[in-house]
């Protein structure tokens, strides 16, 4: 079933990208069982050639073969969609206007977007947003990005649900809990920013061509993620076209850790969560993508009996780490927490983060602080030091080391994960804010020195759930406060992303052991 890797035709594999992280290629679709057991838990990309060529979308949507008229008729004249413009961002426009602008581009592909010919169609008045027409006229790029066909979290956003009739759920994704199915369409050639997504992603091209460059989560230091408290914290700061190596010195190595794959009509690409990717789309390209949460994490949350799938004591590498220690003010640990809680005057209560916590959340905070302080005391007693997680995380320092296997449950092996898993997203948010304000060094030590793979996976899942329940302003304020406690914010991001990558490897290893009795070494 698997093809030989093809480095020609514009595809590329960086010299430093480990062989175990390179995209697998399949000439025919795998079964749902094969995908779930051997492809998804591998946590590496996979290319499926021709897997969606039989969709109605692949045969009827092509703009160069009458697809624009077909889409206009199918969607109708009265549907508005959220389009992206390079100059002003999101804007609501009639779907018919965007289709007509694509027709105009098809007739005059060499005309600039602000030329009279290219603007003929766009001068029609907008039906849903005042000033939309003038914004379109001044924009050099208009495209549809993440317009929902299916959205389980917000059904009101499914403006193009009627198009679901023209696509089919790939057989190997059967049973996946999709969070959304979206359409992406650009008029002229388009280049995306470099970013990662918090969900697994299957990108399917139904017209045109896309060139996708991929980086594993471990390449994050070379990509310089944007400030973690901003709206685009999952995006790279480095310009692909003109990288500034004087400001981003490590970026000169980013190509060596990358791989580029080419997707034509009918092809699909599996992009695991946390993998950075940058996409170049030929003009008049249309794609569909499916987003879903990883199977393993869903099963952990639904049925804790599945915890036996991963076998590792996530604290085995945190003992002896002395990178971050609580301050003298925090050295009282849990007793200091009790003291702080009891001794607030009436004028302080309303301003104290601790006073807003529910009893169960306060207990969880107490237990986390106890873990950190007990670990610090053990390290101080033994006088053992380790490198920081940024420079040589112990989760990755010995890639060939065998993961210990026993019959203990996953959460029992990771006390931090066991504490944070039962907390509701906003309860966890309140607890972390309380730690940031009251015990900042303890929080720093927790994330950088003690957070194991399972804890990193659960914590980032909780972050995703928080984001779904908060406004953009609330998200920004939380992340700004949370990450402000770290002297090196990139080290915190590395700890989380490396932990997630290690978690995926553990799951992959466990599945191999369970299904085929093979033990896989972690890639170096």
UniProtKB/TrEMBL annotation:
Residues 158-307 form the JmjC domain. PROSITE patterns: JMJC. Residues 318-354 are annotated as: Disordered. SUPFAM superfamilies: Clavaminate synthase-like. SMART domains: JmjC. Belongs to the JARID1 histone demethylase family. This is JmjC domain-containing protein.
